[in-house]
Amino acid sequence: MLDASEGYTTEDGRKIGGVVMEMKNITLRFGGVIAIQDISFDIREGEIRAIIGPNGAGKSSMLNVISGFYHPQEGEVWYQGAKRPPMKPYEVARQGIARTFQNIALFEGMSVLDNVMTGRIRQMKAGMLAQAIWRGKAEREEVENREFVEKIIDFLEIQHIRKTPVGRLPYGLKKRVELARALAAEPSILLLDEPMAGMNVEEKEDMSRFVLDVNDEFGTTIALIEHDMGVVMDLSDRVVVMDYGKKIGDGTPDEVRNNQAVIDAYLGVAHD
Amino acid sequence: MFYREAGDFKTSYSDDSQTFPIKFDRYRYYVVLLVAFAVVPFIINDYWVNAVFLPFLIYAIAAIGLNILVGYCGQVSLGTGGFMAVGAYACYKLMTSFPEISIIIHVILAGGITAGVGVLFGLPSLRIKGFYLAVATLAAQFFLVWLFNRVPWFYNYSASGQISAPERTVLGVPVTGAETQPWAGYLICLVFVFACAIIARNLTRGMAGRKWMAIRDMDIAAEIIGVNPLKAKLSAFAVSSFFIGISGALFFAVYLGAVEVGEVFGITKSFLVLFMVIIGGLGSIFGSFAGAAFLVLLPVLLKNVLVGAMGWPTDLAAHLEFMIVGALIILFLIAEPHGLAQLWRVAKEKLRLWPFPH
């Protein structure tokens, strides 16, 4: 088992740091339905952590617990060494947790640039009056953050559409814009809810490359949910496997692949 | 041919985010400003000011205000008339209580008071959306008009129940009251329109505007990236009501001079401003001007053509006006939900390539 304070080195030689976020015995119920049952796992600095499982396993619920949408009935969320009190989603976002959605949640009426700029909310603090006259802090912030946003836009190769309203973009590009918006926040943890859903092979390759590059360039910690097993096994450093709200496996892709409970969950077991 | 961005290079991000990024637009804007400030005041007479310019300018402020709430933040409001009344009565009370202070300060303070009232009536928006919110703001409309009718303190216990603006001067020139010269009333309104439009534009191109639009387009996603929905919605109500309050104050003090609340700031006013925003274009400052101009000019034009040129009876022309405005609203909602502003944008796209369409 891994030590909480020390990191480890991955097969490809990347250094993974200490624990950023730890879920301790999380249980989430909706009335009589138990969506998540007594699950614990940790996310370490700089790693790509995957959460997988068959449909209805509770993966998205888990992500919603992390991002503050759902409040678990039992268990604790520890973030950056402190227990996190129950908070609203926007407060979680301001602590540096950014996410993307399974069904794209972009602002359709706004341009790509404006969408990505909204990701900078955490960094832009000018008051209403300063913004109204567009002088001093407001103007300075606008330019500084624009510079950062342009780097992200450059990085994700969406320069050519920066002024296009998001509503007019095709699906694959929208996914990329959503990633850009999340990245613009300079998150300490980036949550990706099925970043490759509904994509063809080339788009998946592009997206995988972006996920790896993000992790590599910015050192961003990433937690992702994905159904494509090939993608998951290739990208992630450690994998949590869920089934019917319970954790049935946790470890490196190789460990998980050979875990009998995981094989049973995915392939089914013979009932006699 | 005239209208193009080729060769107009931006070398800084502040250049790129300015209000009129295209050179041609920018020069046209300067020309409009020059004409509005330096030419129009010398050539207008009483008829033009009272029939066209004052209502256009004042409704433009109200439309900008409502557009921030409805067009940018996506919160439907039918309380515009009520909020204009708050601005008017606040201005009246301030003018009569502190006669030595400048009217300009009074108008701005009236906007501030209306902002406070707007925030109060905006509170339901945290729980309810769309149609239901519209009904909640309708309550504001009726309550406010009732309040100003029934509480004599608001109209200084005058026998008629009306409020009328005493004479106030700016730099020695009367801008309210019977002695006001046409150009003086026009200029004071123009200054307010100019300031309001710039403030609205700055807010909507910056972070405040992005927060509002995020709430409008998808409130859940807005919250997940860090927009506090409470602050965003209430700030939209505050800013919107601030502008509407200013327009109400000007409407009363400079344009009408005397006001009976039920008649002037009734539900029809709320709908009129809402139609301006819809016809002009939701989520566009230019659209607010276009909508205000359209709905102010249309009756004047129809009256001049039908009554003046064709000799129709006045009431027939007035009824025809209702029918035309009604038909236009339906037409716009079906054919061009983004209003005149969108038509203008499409025209500009075409002009960019003209005369070589490919």
TrEMBL record, chain A:
One MF term in the entry's GO annotations: ATP hydrolysis activity
Keyword tags: ATP-binding, Hydrolase, Nucleotide-binding, Transport
PROSITE patterns: ABC_TRANSPORTER_2 (PS50893)
Span of domain ABC transporter: 21-269
GO cellular component: plasma membrane
Listed EC numbers: 3.6.3.25
Top-level lineage group: Bacteria
Name under which the protein is recorded: Sulfate/thiosulfate import ATP-binding protein CysA
Species: Roseovarius aestuarii
From TrEMBL, chain B:
UniProt xrefs under Pfam families: BPD_transp_2 (PF02653)
GO terms for cellular component: plasma membrane
Membrane-spanning intervals of the chain: 27-44, 50-69, 76-95, 101-123, 130-148, 183-200, 236-259, 271-296, 316-335
GO molecular function: branched-chain amino acid transmembrane transporter activity
Top-level division of the source organism's lineage: Bacteria
Compartments, record wording: Cell membrane
Main location class: membrane
Name by which UniProt lists this protein: Leucine/isoleucine/valine transporter permease subunit
Provenance organism: Roseovarius aestuarii
